[in-house]
Amino acid sequence: MSESLDLFRLQKLDTRIDEIDRRLKEIDLALNDNQRVKRAQKKYKSAQNKAKEIRIKLHLIEDKVEAQKLKRKTTQNVLFSGKVKNPKELEDLQMESDALKRYIARLEDEQLEAMIENEAAEEAENEARKNLEQAKGTTAEENAELLGEQDKLEKDLDRLILEKKAVLGSIPPGNLSLYKKLRKAKHGTAVAAVSDGGCSVCGQALTPADLQAVRASNALVYCPSCGRILYGG
Ligand SMILES: [Zn+2]
């Protein structure tokens, strides 16, 4: 009885240890994966660059408008100063002033377009910055949760390893090497409990003679279908 009981205990511990190992690996991967933040950072950077580009464009147009307005003002000052008397010269100045006026109007249209573009780009930049902050916050929250789980699992693991050491001390070496071989061959599960008169792993129904042998447990009994060591409970 106690031989299969100890193996069953060992199996339960190993199964739990395997589960924890798997989960700890998953957590490790998740903690090192900050795709969400990286994506948001990339989008923010590109929104920032675009906004900067448009800001520069807007400033260039504003400077141009200012320069042309100044030029026109100078022309008009000369025109209305009364110093120029020659009609041809006056006509030329008037034409120049009109041409400048048209040019300024065109530039001001461009300026207005650039202002609208600039506003949209700044809005997009703000939006992208908010998204980045949000992504960072969400990731930090998730990481805090994962770190908490990791901490708990590591403590569980320490305890389970101690328990396993204690169980190992009571298992004969022959049984242990058998167990290890079976565990390797049977996807980690070497020992199957009997439940409802059958093997709880593969479902094979057991004959009354098998069931009795498991209960009597003078020797290890194997599932006739999957070959695992049976434990009667
Ligand atoms: Zn079985």
What does this structure look like?
This protein has five helices and three strands; from the N terminus they run ααααββαβ. The protein is mainly alpha-helical and 233 residues long. It has a three-stranded mixed beta sheet with strand order 2-1-3. β1 and β2 (198-199) form a beta hairpin. The structure holds zinc ion.
Keyword list:
single chain, about 230 residues, mainly alpha, three-stranded mixed β-sheet, 5 helices, about 5% strand, rod-shaped, binds zinc ion
User: Tell me, what's the shape?
Assistant: rod-shaped
Number of strands: 3
Strand count, sense and barrel status of the largest sheet are: 3 strands, mixed
Radius of gyration: 41 Å
Give the amount of beta strand, in percent: under 5%
Order of helices and strands, N to C?
HHHHEEHE
Cofactors, ions, other ligands: zinc ion
Which secondary structure elements does this structure contain, and how are they paired or packed?
Elements: H1 2-32, H2 35-80, H3 87-168, H4 173-185, E1 191-195, E2 198-199, H5 208-216, E3 229-231
Parallel strand pairs: 1-3
Antiparallel strand pairs: 1-2
Zinc ion binds next to loops.
